[in-house]
Amino acid sequence: MVEFPVRVYYEDTDAGGVVYHSRYLNFMERARTEWLRAAGFDQSALKQQEQVLFVVHSMQLQFKKPARLDDQLRVVSQLLEMGRGSFSCQQQIMRDETILIEAQVKVACVDADSFKPTGIPARIKIALESS
């Protein structure tokens, strides 16, 4: 399980003063990127050295409660399943101990040039499974 802090800025909110729904996807994307970074993998280096990219295959979201301007949130990411060429994770966006958003995200590994599915390199699998 990995946690990533997020502060809600004015640019994240809609006319009602709450976080616009698509901004939560940005928060989760940043958290997944930082999860990889914490495991020792920079996405630019993965593209150059391993010839792989990680792309969102599918996502299921449940919006439970709104976040508002200046809220200090945290995105909690946890691996659910590791496959040959993809992994699934659960992500929760929380304010204190309150779950605001829950998401199930499937991330696919693709070849950096062709964007065709490919296997996740073993060292990345090992690192994500142990984080």
Descriptive report:
This protein is α+β, with helices and mostly antiparallel strands and 131 residues long. Helices cover 26% and strands 40% of the residues. It is built from 3 helices and 5 strands; from the N terminus they run E-H-H-E-E-E-E-H. Strands 1-3-4-5-2 form a 5-stranded antiparallel beta sheet. A hairpin with a 2-residue loop joins strand 4 and strand 5. It is elongated. The mean pLDDT is 96.
Give a topology summary.
Blueprint: E1 2-7, H1 21-38, H2 43-50, E2 52-63, E3 72-82, E4 86-95, E5 98-111, H3 122-129
Output the keywords:
131 residues, five-stranded antiparallel sheet, single chain, alpha+beta, 3 helices, 26% helix
Mean pLDDT: 96
Strand order of the largest sheet: 1-3-4-5-2
Report the strand count: 5
Order of helices and strands: EHHEEEEH
Count of helical regions: 3
Question: How would you summarize this macromolecular structure in one to three sentences?
Answer:
This protein has 131 residues and is an alpha+beta fold. It contains three helices and five strands. The longest helix has 18 residues.
